[in-house]
Design a protein that fits this description.
The complex is a heterodimer of chains A (about 425) and B (about 80).
Chain A (H helix, E strand, L loop, with lengths): L3 H7 L24 H8 L12 H10 L11 H9 L6 E6 L8 H8 L1 H15 L3 E7 L3 H16 L6 E7 L8 H8 L23 E5 H18 L10 E8 L5 E6 L4 H7 L7 E6 L5 E4 H4 L6 H4 L10 E6 L4 H14 L6 H18 L8 H8 L7 H15 L1 H8 L22
Parallel strand pairs in A: 1-2, 1-4, 2-3, 5-9
Antiparallel strand pairs in A: 5-6, 7-8, 7-9
Helix pairs in contact in A: 1-9, 3-4, 3-6, 3-9, 5-6, 5-7, 6-9, 13-14, 13-16, 14-15, 14-16, 15-16
Chain B lengths: L2 E5 L9 H5 L4 E3 L5 E3 L9 H10 L5 E5 L14
Antiparallel strand pairs in B: 1-4, 2-3
The chains are: A alpha/beta (about 425), B alpha+beta (about 80).
Chain lengths: ~425, ~80
C-alpha cells in the first residue's frame, strides 16, 4: 500500500478552502482526463497493491464526516465498517445509475474525471478488503460509460490497482438506482428493489456483503485518502462537512453542475449560475423525490440538510430547479407525478395503484377538471408502504406542490392557470448533456 | 418477546383476509391493500395476529420481533 506520505511527495496538497475539489481536474474541452494527466495532478493513487482490509482507512473516513452523496446521506465511514464487519472478500458496487432525470452530476464525474472515481473505488475496496469492484452506469450515460471503460483499460495496462474492476450497463430507470435494485440487477435479476432486510451490506451480490456507494461518494474518498480528514473538513460545516455537486436547472442564466461547499446559501448558488433568467416563483430542491419551496422562503436557505429541514426539504439527489413566475407548479408537478407513477417497479400494490390514482387526480387538477377529494388521503396512505422509498419520495414531492402552489391549485379548480411557459421539468429519457 | 406485524408489499396481492381476521390492527386502503399498525402486539392479541398471518395466501404477512427495523425506514437506502 502506498502511504499518504508517499502520495504527498508527488503533488502539493491543494489549499483546503480551494474550490472546486472534485472538479479541479476537469479539462477545458470536457474530454475525460487520462491516467497520465490524472496522476500528474493528483499524485499516485492513494492505495497500492497490498492486500487485506485497512481499518485505518475506515477510521480516516469516519473522522472526515463524509456522508453518502447519492441522496441517502448515510455516514460513509459507518457503512464501510458495517460491510467490513461482515467478513472476508466483500464487494464494492459503485452506483452510477443516476436515474434522476434532472441530475447530471454523477455523469460529469464519470465522463470527465473517471480516474478520480476509480481511485475512490480502489480506496473503498482497500478499506474493506474487497478484491472486486463493480461500476454500474446508467444506459443513457454513454459518455460516462466510455470514459470509465477507457480508464479501466489504462489502469489495467499500468497495473495500478489491486482490486479488479468490472463495468456494468444498468437500465436507465428511476428505481434502478435503488441499491437493492442495482444489486438484484448485477446478480442477473430485474433492476427492481427487493424486500429488506437483508440489505446489501449484509447480503448483496452473490449473497456476499456488498458496499454500495454513489459515484460522488467514492470520488470524495479518492481525495480524502490523499489529503486527509482535516483538509476535507475545511469546507462545509462541522456537522455536514465537505463539498457537494449540485445540478442547477430551470430559470437561471447558466444551468449546470456546480461544486459547492455545504452550507452555501441558495441565493449565492443562483448568483454563481449568472442569476435568475426570469422572476422566480419557487424552487424544487432535491430532485423528483424533493420538495417545492416558495422563492421568498428559499432565498434565505443554506444548502445544508439541517437548514433545509426547517422547510421540510433536504438536499436529496442534489438537483435544484428554479421555476419562473410564468410557469405553473401544478402543471409541472402533474407531469412528473405521471412519470413517477409510470416509473414504479410495479411490484407493490400501494405504489402501483396509489401513485397511479394520485397522478390521475393531479392531471385532472392540472387540466381544470373536478378536484379529487381523496387526493390528500392517498398521498398519506402510500408513504412507507412499498419495498423501497419510491412511493414515499413521490408522495412527498407532490404534497409539497399542493402546499406551495395552493393558490394555483385553487385557481385551477376554478378553471384558470397562471402559467404560460412550455414544460420545464423533463420526463423524457433523452441522452443527457454533460457540462 | 414482544412482536409486531410486517407485510412484504412485493408478495402481498391484497386478498384482504388479514384485515377481516384482525381488524384491530389491519385496515385496507382504497385498493384493498393492508395498512398495518406497526406497534407491538400484546400477548392477548397475539393469537388473532397469528391467525391473520396463517391465513395470508401469499405468505406476505409475518410476525417479527417488535425491535426489528421497519424495512423502508432504514437509513441505509438511497445511495
Amino acid at each position: 500500500m502506498t502511504t499518504r506520505g508517499e502520495a504527498l511527495r508527488h503533488v502539493a496538497v491543494p489549499a483546503p478552502d480551494a474550490l472546486p475539489r472534485l472538479l479541479a481536474g476537469v479539462r477545458d474541452d470536457r474530454r475525460p482526463v487520462s491516467l497520465a494527466e490524472h496522476l500528474d495532478r493528483e499524485g499516485s493513487p492513494p492505495v497500492g497493491r497490498g492486500g487485506g482490509a485497512h481499518a485505518e482507512l475506515i477510521e480516516l473516513v469516519c473522522a472526515s464526516g463524509l456522508s453518502g452523496r447519492g441522496g441517502g446521506a448515510f455516514p460513509t465511514g459507518q457503512k464501510l465498517r458495517a460491510v467490513a464487519e461482515q467478513g472476508r472478500n466483500p464487494i464494492v458496487l459503485v452506483n452510477g445509475v443516476e436515474g434522476e432525470l434532472i441530475s447530471s452530476k454523477d455523469h460529469v464525474l464519470l465522463a470527465q474525471v473517471p480516474h478520480l472515481v476509480l481511485d475512490g473505488a480502489a480506496v473503498a475496496a482497500a478499506a474493506i478488503g474487497a478484491r472486486e469492484a463493480i461500476v454500474a452506469i446508467g444506459a443513457g450515460l454513454t459518455r460516462g460509460y466510455a470514459a470509465i471503460e477507457t480508464a479501466i483499460a489504462e489502469r489495467e495496462h499500468r497495473r495500478v490497482d489491486r482490486v479488479s474492476f468490472r463495468l456494468v450497463r444498468a437500465p436507465d430507470r428511476f428505481v434502478a438506482g435503488d441499491e437493492t435494485a442495482l444489486v438484484n440487477f448485477v446478480d442477473g435479476g430485474p433492476a427492481k428493489p427487493t424486500f429488506t432486510p437483508p440489505r446489501p451490506y449484509e447480503r448483496g451480490i452473490r449473497g456476499i456483503a456488498t458496499l454500495v456507494q454513489n459515484v460522488e461518494t467514492v470520488a470524495n474518498l479518492a481525495l480524502l485518502a490523499r489529503f486527509g480528514p482535516r483538509w476535507f473538513r475545511a469546507l462545509g460545516t462541522a456537522k455536514e462537512p465537505g463539498t457537494v455537486l449540485v445540478t442547477l436547472g430551470g430559470a437561471v442564466r447558466r444551468p449546470g453542475v456546480y461544486e459547492i461547499p455545504l452550507g452555501l446559501p441558495l441565493r449565492e448558488l443562483v448568483v454563481w449560475a449568472g442569476g435568475p433568467s426570469a422572476p422566480i416563483r419557487a424552487y424544487l430542491i432535491g430532485g423528483y423525490f424533493g420538495t417545492w419551496v416558495a422563492a421568498a422562503e428559499a432565498d434565505a436557505l443554506a444548502l445544508l440538510d439541517s437548514d433545509l429541514r426547517t422547510v421540510g426539504a433536504s438536499l436529496g439527489a442534489r438537483a435544484i430547479v428554479a421555476l419562473a413566475e410564468t410557469s405553473c407548479g401544478i402543471v409541472e408537478t402533474a407531469r412528473v407525478a405521471r412519470y413517477l407513477a409510470d416509473e414504479s417497479a410495479g411490484q407493490c400494490g400501494p405504489c402501483v395503484r396509489g401513485l397511479d390514482a394520485v397522478a390521475t387526480a393531479l392531471a385532472q387538477l392540472a387540466t381544470g377538471k373536478q378536484s379529487q377529494p381523496r387526493l390528500q388521503r392517498w398521498l398519506e396512505n402510500v408513504s412507507g408502504r412499498g419495498a423501497c422509498r419510491h412511493p414515499d419520495g413521490a408522495a412527498h414531492f407532490i404534497a409539497s406542490a399542493l402546499h406551495v402552489f395552493a393558490d394555483e391549485a385553487a385557481q385551477h379548480a376554478a378553471g384558470s392557470c397562471s402559467g404560460s411557459d412550455g414544460p420545464v421539468l423533463t420526463v423524457a429519457r433523452k441522452r443527457r448533456r454533460v457540462e | 418477546m414482544s412482536v409486531r406485524l410486517r407485510v412484504n408489499p412485493i408478495l402481498c396481492d391484497g386478498h384482504g383476509l388479514c384485515a377481516e381476521l384482525f381488524p384491530e390492527r389491519i385496515a385496507l386502503d382504497d385498493w384493498g391493500y393492508p395498512i398495518i399498525d406497526h406497534s407491538p402486539i400484546g400477548s392477548k392479541e397475539e393469537s388473532h395476529a397469528r391467525r391473520a398471518v396463517d391465513a395470508c395466501p401469499t405468505l406476505a404477512l409475518a410476525l417479527v420481533p417488535a425491535s426489528a427495523p421497519r424495512p423502508s425506514a432504514s437509513a441505509e437506502g438511497g445511495e
